[in-house]
Amino acid sequence: MSKLYSSVSGLSILMxxxxxxxxxxxxxxxxxxxxxxxxxxxxRLGFNLAWLSxxxxxxxxxxxxxxxxxxxxxxxxxxxxxxxxxxxxxLVVIFGKPELLGTPERWEAAFLLLFIAAIDLFGGYTFNIxxxxxxxxxxxxxxx
Length: 144
Prior knowledge:
Elements: H1 2-28, H2 45-62, H3 73-81, H4 84-96, H5 104-136
């Protein structure tokens, strides 16, 4: 289980860093995410972000149960804190550099990416607390 978790956790950290890099590139360098096949055209920005959200959050939140019951607590902490980087980039862009968001589509993308990172961060901690309470039997039967 330990090796499986370290590989899942490593992939989770890698996905958070890839999302942060994608945000940074999209906002600070004005990337349009256009590809040769037309999948990433500006008219499909919201649709592409919806798929990105589904894949990213599905993996990030499903990797949490692998963290419980392992000895590698440090890797679990790094895995949980990795989602702070995409959240920070979205916050900096929205509140610190709003001039990078020239169109309504880019504003929408910024808020969607902010919510994705916030759900990953706070949802992950909520799942961890719920799973650790169950494992430690903190919420056991009450005695009078």
